[in-house]
Every structure is written in C-alpha cells, then in structure tokens.
Write a structure and sequence with these properties.
Length: 237
C-alpha cells in the first residue's frame, strides 16, 4: 500500500478536524499567536510519522539560534524534507517553495500559516520580490528555509548544483546561516509500499555573519554546501 494512502486511512477520522483547525489558523494569522499555530502543526506531524512507519532521526537542535532571524539552507530530497523540518524545529519556520504546491489542501494552509512564499521559477522579477520579502521577514526576527538546488535531487543522497542567488537573503541581513543535511529522506515517498523507513535530519553548526561577511554569494554557497556534504559523507551508510 502507498505510504500516503496508508497515512490517510489510518487517520481518516482525524483529518477533517485537523483541516478545519488549520483553515482557522490560516484565515486568522494575526489573531492567534504564531507559537500556538506552529505547535499545533508540529504536534500533528509528529503524530503522523509513526502511522506512516517513518522513523525520523534528528540531531543538532541545540545548534539552532535561540532567538529568531536565521536562515536554513540544505540539500533537497523531496516533499518530506519540509515535514521533517516542521516536525522537529522548535521555532516557527517559513519556506520558499515552488508555486505548483500552492493549492494543495492542508499544505496550502500550513504555507499560509508560516508566511511562506511561492516562487515562480519562470519569472526572475517575481523571484527578486520573493527574496526581498524573505529579507524583510528575517529582519523582523522570523526564520526561513531555502533549498538552493531549486528542485529535489533525484539521485538519492547526492546533491545537485546549488544556486547562489538564494544566499543574498542571508548576506543582506547578516543573519546566522544554519546548514541542514537530509539523509535518506527521499526514501519516505520514493520507496514503494509502506514498509518501515528511516530518515535523518541534521542541523549543523551555524555560520555566523563574521565568518561569511567578506564572501561573495557564490563563495557562501560553496561554504554551506561543503558543510552539508561533510554531513552526508558522515551519516550516509
């Protein structure tokens, strides 16, 4: 049985209530404390993982800055990456995502709640606006994740090319950069059936502004990617 189908069937009576509450949070983002809606999202995702036979192993949460206003950059293995982040990151987190995901029920509400931004990869001007919006939110103390590959890697734990433009968000705000390594996360949805599967998420040591302030965005991208690659080499069996 497909893993997503199994998840839905096992939680069929819970899904309507979850969806209704997410809609309420999404329509009234200013009414409810962000910490409340984030905790709700996190709790429900943590509840769903065991029902999907998913063992998510997380390390390095202590590396996350205690106060908001940081960027996460990591390799991209699929839609489960964001589930893993939402289920484990103690602080609210937004994401820059491809606009094709914008109208998927449940996901749409979560993206609105987290003040995430849709990116039209065919429109460079719109991309600039999105990056500017992220910068403004970072300066307000919010946190965001960007996958510099632009799309998921289809070669298991091997990364694709990283695009340096996304690192302007960090360089222009001077915020800490937290590299994130996803290991075997692709297996969650790519593996046929719903047999038990293990995936890993590693929050690496943050790169403070003093360490990258003199670097070009291409050099920052290379630095962060090298940290992620080191983690992949360490944790990939």
């Amino acid at each position: 049985m497909n893993r997503i189908v199994k998840l839905i069937l096992k939680n069929i009576f819970k899904v309507p209530g979850i969806y209704i509450r997410l809609c309420r949070y999404a329509k009234n983002c200013g009414k409810y404390p962000e910490a409340e809606s984030w905790e709700y999202i996190q709790t429900k995702l943590q509840m769903l993982l065991p029902t999907g036979n998913i063992d998510l192993q997380v390390s390095g949460i202590e590396n996350l800055p205690k106060k908001g206003g940081f960027m996460l950059y990591g390799n991209h293995q699929g839609m489960f990456d964001m589930v893993a982040l939402c289920a484990s990151c103690p602080l609210p987190l937004g994401v820059v995502y491809k606009q094709e995901l914008k109208n998927i029920p449940v996901l749409e509400q979560i993206l609105r709640i987290t003040k995430s931004f849709a990116l039209d990869r065919s429109n460079p001007r719109q991309g600039i606006t999105v990056m500017q919006n992220v910068q403004q939110e970072i300066e307000k103390g919010r946190n965001y994740v960007i996958f510099p590959e632009g799309t998921r890697s289809k070669n298991s734990n091997t990364m694709g090319e990283w695009h340096s433009g996304s690192f302007k968000c960090a360089s222009k705000t001077g915020c800490p950069i937290v590299p994130v390594a996803f290991v075997d996360c692709y297996k969650v949805l790519d593996q046929k059936g719903s047999k038990p599967v293990s995936a890993q998420l590693h929050y690496l040591e943050p790169i403070e502004y003093d360490e990258y302030k003199t670097l070009k965005t291409t050099e920052i991208a290379e630095l962060v990617k090298s940290r992620v690659q080191q983690a992949l080499d360490k944790y990939t069996v």
